[in-house]
Design a protein that fits this description.
The chain is mostly helical and about 500 residues long. It is built from 17 helices and no strands. The protein has helices spanning about 5-60, 65-80, 85-110, 110-120, 125-150, 155-180, 185-205, 215-255, 255-280, 285-290, 295-325, 325-330, 340-365, 370-425, 430-450, 455-480, 480-495. The radius of gyration is 22 Å and the shape is globular.
Length: about 500
């Protein structure tokens, strides 16, 4: 097997192991969203969105980006095969997240009435934020344990954590929504945070570490790099979450809480559900890229491989969304949410560009170049924020979808030119062939969904989907022998 095929296989294996579980996680998230949509309606979806986005904003403000920065630190020391050093970094991380978690919890607790006024225009949800303050600590503790698993590249543990965390959250939240309706929202969020932490800790504690003692001065020495890099990462996250949060507030002032619910539902599909795909695609990729980031040539090859895989895997899913968007929205939520169809159609085209550039942006963290990451994220989010406001004001929900498309194209071009001139990166001719063919199929699917009447659009759309699937399978097989892998897998399953 050539080194190139081996690299593709390693990336694909990590993606399928984690991605297969993530598909189940998406299904669980869909079921939970379905219950929220049916039991609570757009209003309940709007309340959940405002509560989660507010606490998410505080979390981004206080977590110092430790989860992402720690992955790099752990991955680097993991490559040294020094058990003592690995244990030392992990112990420092676990102490740091207690500090950042308590900071977030206290800020939410003391500013609860102000947060209620900002999010809802009144103090009705003050006690809700008081109760939710504990989730800031729980979330940070969970993030610390997830960083340990990612840094040590425990893909199976990460996958199981994601699956069982989502399932436990579903089990505890649905009864609360059913019996208590809107009053069950806050308890459901808290119990979900608790169960997610317990599941994550269960798997992270399966990994044995050497017993080490650290002096107080060592915490500053070892944690300084994590906090320095994490500070800029937290600023980037804060900007993104802050922009999304302000868009929700703007929508509530211009429109209604129901409109916030529609936006939250559409945003969940565009960002959360497809975001799970990107998380799957980069779970093993990030630590691998961090290990070769000092060599621009090796980094370029790996970035191209990951970009190709991202487009090949996600493109067929996008064509399905484009063709069957109406049915998908009804299945995911209910008929009441059909108004988000056009928003998702436009945004789905933008995800092709996000898939093309997502692997490139990871190089900033891998190289520790957080300043460049910060400024690129700042520019991208300001651009998207402005377009979101203009789009909703003049074109409503469809305007939001158009703004997402334009913003994703802008982010793609910005990221590419930065890595092109700063790190001598360039896309391979293989990538361009893959990207433009799949994008062309996506555009055709978009036209069919928008302009062609039923049922002809479905007949032609299925043909487009089959072409996209066939092309992806063919290209994956050429790169890594996908069909051989599939045959061996099926053969082993039949024997067992």
């Amino acid at each position: 097997m050539t080194e190139e095929k081996s690299s593709y296989r390693q990336l694909f294996k990590a993606t399928t192991v984690f991605g297969g579980v993530q598909i189940l996680t998406i299904v669980i998230s869909i079921i939970r969203s379905k219950f929220i949509a049916v039991l609570l309606g757009p209003t309940g979806m709007g309340i959940v969105g405002l509560l989660n986005s507010t606490t998410g904003f505080i979390d981004a403000l206080t977590n110092f980006g430790i989860e992402r920065s720690a992955v790099k630190n752990i991955a680097v020391v993991y490559g040294t095969n020094d058990p003592k050093l690995i244990s030392k970094i992990i112990l420092v991380l676990r102490r740091l997240v207690w500090g950042t978690g308590l900071l977030g919890a206290l800020i939410t607790l003391f500013l609860s009435s102000y947060l209620s006024k900002i999010a809802f225009g009144n103090e009705e949800y003050t006690f809700a934020f008081i109760w939710l303050s504990v989730t800031l600590l729980l979330t940070q503790l969970t993030s610390g344990e997830k960083a340990v698993l990612r840094g040590l590249r425990k893909i199976k543990f990460i996958a199981k954590t994601s699956l069982w965390g989502a399932l436990s959250g579903l089990i505890v939240s649905i009864p609360l929504y059913y019996f208590f309706s809107l009053k069950g929202i806050v308890p459901a969020i808290i119990l979900t945070a608790i169960t997610t932490l317990l599941v994550t800790v269960y798997y992270s504690r399966k990994i044995s570490f050497d017993s080490v003692k650290i002096k107080k001065n060592d915490y500053f020495t070892e944690g300084k790099d994590m906090l320095k890099m994490g500070f800029f990462l937290s600023l980037s996250s804060l900007i993104a979450l802050g922009a999304s949060y302000l868009v929700r507030i703007f929508i509530r002032y211009i429109g209604t809480v129901d409109d916030v619910g529609f936006y939250s539902a559409g945003f969940a599909i565009v960002n959360a559900y497809f975001g799970v795909f990107f998380t799957s695609l980069t779970t093993d990729y990030y630590p691998r890229l961090a290990s070769v980031a000092s060599d621009n040539n090796k980094a370029r090859i790996l970035m191209n491989q990951q970009s190709e895989l991202s487009v090949l895997i996600i493109a067929p899913v996008l064509t399905i969304f484009l063709i069957f968007i109406n049915a998908i929205v009804i299945i995911l939520y209910s008929k009441d949410f059909v108004p988000i169809n056009d928003m998702i159609l436009w945004a789905s085209l933008g995800i092709y560009f996000k898939a093309a550039s997502y692997a490139l942006g990871i190089i900033f963290i891998s190289k520790g170049d957080v300043k460049t990451l910060f400024w690129s994220d700042l520019l991208s989010n300001i651009f998207m924020f402005g377009l979101n406001l203009i789009g909703f004001k003049y074109l409503g929900l469809e305007g939001l979808g158009i703004s997402f498309l334009i913003s994703f194209i802008f982010m793609f071009l910005l990221t590419f030119f930065i890595v092109r001139f700063k790190y001598s990166f360039y896309y391979s001719s293989q990538f361009f062939k893959v990207f433009f063919l799949q994008l062309s199929l996506g555009i055709i699917a978009f036209i069919l969904a928008r302009l062609i009447n039923k049922p002809l659009n479905y007949y032609l759309g299925v043909l487009v989907i089959l072409i996209s699937v066939w092309y992806s399978i063919k290209q994956l097989d050429r790169r890594m022998g996908l069909l051989i892998i599939a045959k061996k897998f099926i053969s082993n399953k039949l024997k067992s």
